[in-house]
Design a protein that fits this description.
Layout (H helix, E strand, L loop, with lengths): L13 H16 L4 H8 L3 H8 L7 H11 L4 H15 L13 H12 L2 E6 L10 H12 L4 H14 L10 E7 L11 H15 L4 E6 L13 E5 L8 E5 L4 E4 L2 H17 L3 H14 L1
Parallel strand pairs: 1-2, 2-3
Antiparallel strand pairs: 1-4, 4-5, 5-6
């Protein structure tokens, strides 16, 4: 969480880094050094530097002062950056779980909360926003390894709460391409769990803001062979979209627009290689019926 005039707890969030990066680029375009901005505003140079690095929150009045000094005159650009700053100051429901979720995971939840779209490619798991509680609990237990049963239950509650972005008044638009391998039931001791999970996919696939495609097992070499990823989109501008990659011990956020664009292009290739929506639903239905 980030408060005004305080640094964020842990590492800077993606949104605070984005805001700081935009301010730094504007300052450099104006031919100013950090000391120049600090002198004109009567601030310590360290304050300007920490804001640009995303390590210090910024009050609305201070943000407007930075706009003026750095030459950010476009009203639309100012509004975009104000919205990003407000988002960074918000205290979300996930802060209740800060003792059990990592800063990177909290960042993901915060990004989902402020996003308008997500394009997700998954190789071996059902996307978190589409999981049943039983499936989520089983996968969290398997992947966390050292968590207590109480922590697994709490993390399951977090994952279920994340799914509220799909039912809010202006829901997140989710487009998921799921490799067929993730749909094959592998928990023979609990076939009911996988059957219910596949049914949840079918139930969500009919929603107007959810698109689900299956990449078949016999698909030719494709852009997703290196692993799962998601592209999280925001209402302000595509330059502020973020790609998200996760592994066993950490998460990586790709923020450079050119690199994020490559992930967007990779998703488009995967979407084109995947089965059409109707055929995807038919395959999910058939797999469910074989359990």
């Amino acid at each position: 969480m980030m408060d005004e005039e305080r640094g964020p707890v842990g590492e800077p969030t993606v949104r605070s880094r984005q805001l700081g990066g935009e301010l730094q680029r504007a300052r450099e375009a104006a031919g100013l050094k950090v000391d120049d901005v600090a002198s004109r505003l009567g601030w310590p140079a360290s304050k300007v530097s920490r804001i640009e690095k995303g390590r210090l929150g910024v009050k609305p009045a201070d943000l407007d002062a930075l706009f003026d000094v750095c030459g950010i005159e476009d009203p639309e650009k100012r509004d975009v950056l104000r919205r990003i700053a407000r988002h960074g100051r918000q205290r979300g429901w996930w802060q209740t779980y800060r003792d059990i979720i990592s800063p990177a995971y909290a960042d993901l939840i915060s990004l989902e909360d402020g996003a308008t779209s997500m394009r997700s490619y998954q190789t071996t798991l059902i996307p978190g926003l589409l999981q049943t509680a039983a499936y989520a609990r089983a996968t969290i237990d398997a992947l966390s390894m050292t968590s207590t049963p109480e922590e697994v239950n709490a993390l399951t509650n977090v994952r279920m709460a994340r799914q509220s972005v799909l039912s809010r008044p202006e829901p997140l638009e989710l487009w998921a391409v799921i490799h067929e391998a993730a749909l094959r039931p592998r928990v023979k001791s609990d076939p009911k769990m996988m059957k219910e999970q596949l049914q949840k996919l079918l139930d969500h696939a009919v929603l107007p803001h959810v698109s689900i495609q299956v990449l078949p097992l016999d698909a030719p070499p494709h852009a997703g062979m290196l692993g799962s990823f998601a592209v999280i989109g925001f209402p302000e501008t595509a330059d502020l979209d973020v790609a998200y990659l996760e592994n066993l011990t950490s998460a990586l956020y790709v923020e450079e627009p050119a690199e994020v664009s490559r992930y967007g292009s990779a998703f488009e290739r995967l979407r084109a290689a995947a089965l059409p929506f109707d055929e995807s639903a038919d395959l999910i239905e058939r797999l469910k019926d074989t359990i």
